[in-house]
Amino acid sequence: MKKLLFIALLNIIICPFAGFAQVLKEDQKLKAKLEELIKDFKGDVGIYVRNIKTNKVVAINADTIFPTASMIKIPIMIGTFDKIKQGRLKYEQELIYRDSLKYDDGIVGSLKDSAKITLSKVVMLMCTVSDNTGSLWLQALSGGGKRINAILDSLGFQVTRVNSRTPGREANRTQYGWGQTSPREMANLLTMIREGKIISPAYSDRMYRNLGRQFWDEEGLSQIPENIKVATKNGAVNRSRSETVLVHAPSGEYVYSVITKNQKDESWDRNNEGYELLRKVSALLWHYFEPKSKWKPVEGYEKL
């Protein structure tokens, strides 16, 4: 009896993050399917999945540190909204763009010097099209990476951090780039926003709505029916691909985060092994949680 109890306890995880006091159980069947899916991947893979309705989870390298790439824009948005709560920024305030802010040729970086744009539109561009110049602008307006990291720490996140343009984190930036995280932390961060636990329910709601407008929908989102609500942020750098998604599935919401690093495939076309992995994981999860669904992805996008 004691041996059986010990084995049962090994399959129970108590989530350590603020706002997560639930007891989580491992979904061994789903874990086996995911492990089979990633076994031949040429690089490192981390996956965290949680069925929010049943509290069953899968954790594969879920606490390993990975590059965030553009997923760091979720913490930047949180830092921005925290400044709004303090009254030091206003969501609809008018900003003036300067050429000195330019990082790349995205939408914000293509503005003319002295162009006017509201802060809310810069946030939208950061979340929707992953605008880099706008994101770095908001990082500065929110008080910088050090302040954002302090907020993350206060929420119980131990490894999710802004590295770039953050004093004292130069070594982390060299290793991980703009930001770093783990699949478990990134999935939990998105879930806390969904549950109204970041800053306030109203602020969380506004942030969650921003994450529901995703321009980059060719990977994991392409494997989910177009009429299903999702909130998401993805990222990509040469040797890493990532995606964190909360799916409002008919049978119950689920959240997952997939992140790679040290990929052998550094190509930037649709057939990149990391992009293919994001699609395969998303498809597997959709049909696992919605076994009666007969929906299939529309083919032919690659010919557009």
From TrEMBL:
It is an enzyme of class 3 (hydrolase). Keywords: Hydrolase, Signal. Residues 46-260 form the Beta-lactamase class A catalytic domain. InterPro entries: Beta-lactam/transpept-like (IPR012338), Beta-lactam_cat (IPR045155), Beta-lactam_class-A (IPR000871). It catalyses: a beta-lactam + H2O = a substituted beta-amino acid. It holds the Pfam family Beta-lactamase2. Its EC number is 3.5.2.6. Residues 1-21 form the signal peptide. GO terms for molecular function: hydrolase activity. Transmembrane segments: none annotated. Belongs to the class-A beta-lactamase family. This is beta-lactamase.
